[in-house]
């Protein structure tokens, strides 16, 4: 395993990707912990942490420029609190093929107000009943979930039916006013 140091960040591949974003490639280093990203000086729109050994998604300094975070093929089983403060402009998060098990493990994603593209495929949590509905309920601004577009479909009543202990007043205000929930 390799520790993520300022030197590694300097030596890692940096390029303009296909969508003209500046990307830092930290793929495949077997990095166990996200740390020392202040050394990037917030110069990247995308960071690729694919194929590492990361267990917890946290440890980010304030990165206002970061829009895309690829952390597929890791061992992520926990998502840290406060990602919204560290990554305020994050719009795309790829968590495919990790170790997220419980629906509650996804709750910290609710604070990411800019998040519109999310993939959680090939995690044990995707086998839970009402997984997709739960994610859309918690992160209503998501427009693409697991590479499938989210469509306007289901009423608040259906949401409360799916989550029997979910009182109407706990739903986001924008859903109450429109009497709709984003689903499927």
TrEMBL record:
CC per GO annotation: small nuclear ribonucleoprotein complex; spliceosomal complex
Residue ranges constituting the U2A'/phosphoprotein 32 family A C-terminal domain according to the UniProt record: 128-146
Entry's Gene Ontology molecular function annotations: U2 snRNA binding
GO biological process: mRNA splicing, via spliceosome
Localization (cell): Nucleus
A Pfam family recorded for this sequence: LRR_9
InterPro entries recorded: Leu-rich_rpt, LRR_dom_sf, RU2A, U2A'_phosphoprotein32A_C
Keyword terms, alphabetized: Leucine-rich repeat, mRNA processing, mRNA splicing, Nucleus, Repeat, Spliceosome
Family annotation (PANTHER family): U2 SMALL NUCLEAR RIBONUCLEOPROTEIN A (PTHR10552)
Family statement drawn from the similarity comment of this UniProt entry: Belongs to the U2 small nuclear ribonucleoprotein A family.
Subunit (UniProt): Identified in the spliceosome B complex. Identified in the spliceosome C complex. Found in a pre-mRNA splicing complex with SFRS4, SFRS5, SNRNP70, SNRPA1, SRRM1 and SRRM2. Found in a pre-mRNA exonic splicing enhancer (ESE) complex with SNRNP70, SNRPA1, SRRM1 and TRA2B. Contributes to the binding of stem loop IV of U2 snRNA with SNRPB2.
Function per UniProt: Involved in pre-mRNA splicing as component of the spliceosome. Associated with sn-RNP U2, where it contributes to the binding of stem loop IV of U2 snRNA.
Protein name: U2A'/phosphoprotein 32 family A C-terminal domain-containing protein
């Amino acid at each position: 395993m390799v520790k993520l140091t300022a030197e590694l960040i300097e030596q890692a591949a940096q390029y303009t990707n296909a969508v003209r974003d500046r990307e830092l490639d930290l793929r495949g280093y077997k990095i166990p912990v996200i740390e020392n990203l202040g050394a990037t000086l917030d110069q990247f729109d995308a960071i690729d942490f694919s194929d590492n050994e990361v267990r917890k998604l946290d440890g980010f300094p304030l990165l206002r420029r970061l829009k895309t975070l690829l952390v597929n093929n890791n061992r992520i089983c926990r998502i840290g609190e406060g990602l919204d403060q560290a990554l305020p402009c994050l719009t795309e998060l790829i968590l495919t093929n990790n170790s997220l098990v419980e629906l509650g493990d996804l709750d910290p994603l609710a604070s990411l107000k800019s998040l519109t593209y999310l993939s959680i495929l090939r995690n044990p949590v995707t086998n839970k009943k009402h997984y997709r509905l739960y994610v859309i309920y918690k992160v209503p601004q998501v427009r693409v979930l697991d590479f499938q577009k989210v469509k306007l479909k289901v009423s608040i009543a259906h949401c409360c039916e799916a989550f029997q202990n979910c009182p109407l007043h706990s739903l986001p205000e924008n859903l109450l006013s429109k009497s709709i929930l984003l689903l499927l």
